[in-house]
Amino acid sequence: MRITFTIDSLKLGGAERILLQWARWCRDEGWDVLVITRHGPERDFYALPDGVNRSVEPQLPVVIEWLGWFAFPVRVLALRSLLRRHGTDLAVGVTTLPAVKLLLASAGLRLSTVVSERNYPPAKPPSLSWRLLRRLTYPWADLHLVQTRPTAEWLRQHCGVHRQLLLPNPVIWPLPDREPRLTPDDWLPPDAPLILAAGTKAHQKGFDRLIPVFVELVKHQPHLHLALLGLAPGLYHGSDQQAELRALLGDANDLQQRLLLPGVSGTMASWYERATVFVLPSRYEGFPNVLLEAMAAGCACIASDCLTGPADLIDHEENGLLLSPQASTKQWVEAIESLLLAPDRRRAMGERATAVRDRYAPERLRRDCLEALRRLRHG
Hints:
This protein is an alpha/beta fold.
């Protein structure tokens, strides 16, 4: 079988990592696997797996690029040409815009199509034109891979999507190391307690919510450090995320030194191992890979009970703590401090959290994924 995956780029992110995991599964089945991206290798964080091919959508002439939205039909035709050239039997569009483009490009071709949303759709709505195209095209897909039941229900109600497979993310354990190699020992004293959070999108992950929490906690925990991993230095969609977070601390030099912003780390396993408490104060999620990884690593975790994701993983007071999405700074302070001051409770909670290694084992999810794709091909 010839299978094609489409996504914007292979930058750092959960959608990109899961797409490559699916690509490896398909490769291991002996299928011919192609990944099509709009952006080229200059934006890559993840390496393409051995045996998986890659095509980049052709760059449009400048005069067409200037047309903005009106250049979109040209992009659709370019993707259609790549699909035909590869002789694709089955194509998978990952995230909203690549999925819409795939469904339009494959119309009338003899191939099956799969869509995979990676966030809870109303939490991060695209522009009106993209929402209309999503509503038009999503029912065309032969299958939707959804991470949570609320997402599945939303797609049924608002996009007329009924052919679905619930497929949460697999947990990768142990985590492999890759470049850049940034270890905790290079950033903080060996005995300092550490609150750890991770993600590439500061607003979605609620990192700004952690700053006043950190300010309050250090009043009672004088050696406490806060590490926010994954935020690249410089501009991200027009804003400097690191600078904006540091600005929330003002001129407090001691706090500035203990707010760690290492950037992107390829050695996340060492950070999970070093963390005293892992926190996820997200405003919204799809299915949070970092929380799944932290639990697999045995971290004591606290997460915002946002609309989708954390509640699928955490059983409150059993293998972690869930706080209301509207939890106050005081409530976050109390929850984190309750774990900082109770090492036995932290240890027991972290040990119970490691059960996600079996619950989200790649072997079971791989079987479900490949069987669903195989049925589409033979159907």
